[in-house]
Amino acid sequence: MLSSLIAVFLVIATGWALKARGTVSPAHWLGVERLTYQVLFPAVVIHTLAVADLGALPVLAMGMSLVLAIVTVAGLLLASRPLLARAGIEGPAFTSIFQGSIRWNTFIALALAAGLQGRDGTTLMAIAVAAMIPLLNVLCVLVLARFAHGKPMSPSATIRSILFNPFIWSSAVGLALNQMQWMLPVAIVTYLDVMGRAALGVGLLAVGAGLDLRSLARPRLAHCIAIGVKLVVMPLLAWTIARYLGLSGPALTMTVVAASVPTATAAYFLARDLGGDAPLMAEITTLQTLLALATLPMAVLFLG
């Protein structure tokens, strides 16, 4: 477990070093992020779900554990919104806390799943992708539209942003192909496999390039809330629900990993585009990614 985690963070550190040294220009990193987000990651999700034996996996229990954990945390955060406002945390900052508390870095989760349990781990994590991504995107877009100071999205634009999200449509395509996997051409399956293999390494490099250590401020209340909820409360809640639903073994481990990874770097771009507090979002993302080096092993060791 520790070896897999160290390997993941070494790749992230390499991405940060490449950007810090100027080996890859910022404009090129933007292209890498788009390539990973729109092409490579959908390939790994489609391939994993298409060839998986979902009938032999606890799909419903694992999916429900993660969905219920997300809905519970989201509900608690929304209920505490008036209290946070009295503490000086305004709408845009609240949206960054919200995203930082419920979103997850899928690249780190998939890389850890592959390192810990190989193909079985990747398949189980793909179940988490299919269960969590649509819900997370809907919740985050709606909260930003309600509390951010940007121009509110129209209902049609909100629906388009959800339907055309690469995480969502790739999950739908993978699940659809799973029902006809016996007739999939070998060339297509191999093509998706090759493309998907490139996703994890390139995606982790992009995660590292997105870290801005110079932007780290002295932790404030907003930072502490997002860090505590995401790295402590979410794993404990997901584990509790998973155990109640009877999960054990590899499925329980992957549930804990999915709930324990830091927030997604894509949250920054969503905050920037929809009027959220983008600088705060960047700081939360960086702090969580660094602290996860300590919290992830403990979560997997004691809960997984």
Keywords:
304 residues, mainly alpha, Na+/H+ antiporter like fold
Short characterization:
This protein is mostly helical and 304 residues long. It has 13 helices and no strands.
What does this structure look like?
Helix content is 80%, strand content 0%. It has 304 residues and is mostly helical. The chain has a single domain (2-302), classed as Na+/H+ antiporter like fold, CATH 1.20.1530. Helix 12 (266-274) runs antiparallel to helix 13. The longest helix is centred in the middle third of the chain and has 42 residues, at 106-147.
Q: What is the architecture at the second tier of CATH?
A: Up-down Bundle
Strand tally: 0
Give the helix/strand class: mainly alpha
Principal-axis shape equals globular
Secondary-structure blueprint of this entry?
Elements lengths: L1 H19 L5 H26 L7 H21 L1 H6 L4 H12 L3 H42 L7 H9 L2 H13 L7 H24 L11 H24 L4 H12 L5 H9 L3 H25 L2
